[in-house]
Predict the structure.
Amino acid sequence: MKRDLFAQLLAGVRQGGQYLKGKRKPSRGFRFEPLNIRRMRRTAKLSQEKFADLLGISVGTLRNWEQGRREPDGPAQRLLQVARHNLRVVLEAIHPELMGAPRRRRQGAKAV
């Protein structure tokens, strides 16, 4: 390994150690705008069961999100942000058969 690359790696490890000990603040942070998931679901006129099924999550998870006990993170957060902006696009991407489009077969898959 080149000396300069090793020095950069070592500096990063030291910074990580300082962060873990509380001696250094994170160099960046991520904040998500809070979503009103209940309002999104009600606007779509869907039950908790149907909305959870469409998103591929459990009803319990949806209830926890709606009641503020938990917050969606990572990909779920992003998916819900897109859904808030345009639920139809999300539904078309996840469940095209519900939106009137035939379900696409995977390449090489045989019809049954």
In short: The chain has a mean pLDDT of 85. The helical segments are 3-20, 37-43, 48-55, 59-66, 74-85, 87-94.
